[in-house]
Amino acid sequence: MKSTPWPRAVVVALAGAAALAVVVLAFLWPSVTSTAHDVPVAVVGENPALTSQLASSFDVTTVPDRAAALDLITAREVYGAVVPGPSPEVLTASANGTVVTQMFDGVAAALNTTASDIVPLAATDARGAGLSAMAFPLVIGGIVGGVIISMLVKGTGRRLLATAVYGVGAGIVVVAITQGWFGILQGAFVPNIAAVALSVLAVSALIVGLTSLIGPAGIGVVAVLMMFIGNQISGAIQPWQFLPEPWGAVGQFFPPGAGATLLRDLSYFPGASTTQPWLVLAAWVAAGAVLMAVGHRKLTVASRSTVRASSETEPERVAL
Fold first, then answer.
1. Last residue of a domain, which of 93, 120, 147?
2. How many domains does the chain have?
3. DSSP letter (8 states) at residue 36
4. Strand 80-83 relative to strand 89-92, pairing
5. Backbone angles phi, psi at 128, to 5 degrees
């Protein structure tokens, strides 16, 4: 076996070190650079002094009364509220995550009061660690399913069927474990199964589709896109508002971010609008299906060209 040239060996090693740097940055950058900004909060009544005090870290919405503030919290349009007065009150929802709870505890301390938890986490996931950690396993599950189907299933129709069955099966299994056993997810089983299934399908369908189009390289492209980009800006561990702009908002248009938001809303904020995450996940699944069809068509055209070329040269071989 011929030895690798010395310069090439050095280049390969440096490329590996660069890849490691990218991985380290991808996993540590969101935590190191995250700061509290534009966290939505409601303030009851006109209070310019309080609004100005909160403006550095919060996006303040003024509401007429406490009931209106409660409606916004349960719809997840704001993460908490401040009710000024002789006995000020701070309302929060620990279901938004530990970081948000700590922020509103700090506001309550500054006002010499305590925060009231309007939407608490379930006792089975009291710190929200399980819900925050779910995004990454769903990404891994989507990658695993996509790789298996790409390697072992041939034919566009069969790949579509296998991908759909995998997604539904993953939804049932994951919800059975995380909700039925561990009590991490809350709410109705069927919507949660659908949300998990779409979260997994959004990744696996894209892998199968891109692999159909460009070959095994599609696996690497999707893995990097979802693990090192989408997962890191998903806002699953801390609110997406904490991420540097505009990456927090961008992350909500990737499957990890849309899936994490959807599962949190379905579990604890049934009044929240979930249209965007449903549409985002469905769009990624549709993109994967389209890529499968395009890849199949490309392969069919290439096969016909090969057959035509062979048939055109066949008489010459016979004549010789």
1. 120
2. 2
3. -
4. antiparallel
5. 70, 15
For the whole model, what pTM was predicted? Answer: 0.87
C-beta of residue 47 within 8 angstroms of C-beta of residue 20: no
For 240, the 3-state DSSP assignment is helix
238: nearest Cα among 127, 98, 136, 120: 98
Q: What letter represents residue 227's amino acid?
A: M
Cα-based torsion angle of the residue sequence 236, 237, 241, 245 in order, rounded to the nearest 10 degrees:
-80
Average pLDDT over residues 202-217: 94
Does residue 56 sit in the same domain as residue 142? no
Query: Kind and range of the H or E element at 59?
Result: strand 58-63
Handedness of CA 161, 163, 167, 169 (dihedral sign): positive
Residue 177 has pLDDT above 90, yes or no: yes
CB 260 within 8 A of CB 135: yes
Token digits of residue 164:
């759909």
Cα end-to-end distance, the chain, whole Å: 40
What one-letter code names the amino acid at 256?
P
pLDDT range class, residue 320, cuts 50, 70, 90 = very low
Q: Which domain holds residue 90?
A: 39-120
Interval 224-280: pLDDT, tens: 899 888 998 898 888 888 888 888 899 999 999 999 999 999 999 999 999 999 999
Closest listed residue to residue 211, CA positions, set 167, 258, 152, 161: 152
Residues in the chain: 320
Residue 4 placed within a domain: no
The predicted pLDDT at position 33 comes to: 67
Tell me the CATH number at 68. 3.40.50
Give the strands of the sheet with 89-92, arranged side by side.
58-63, 39-44, 80-83, 89-92, 115-117
Mean pLDDT of the chain: 88
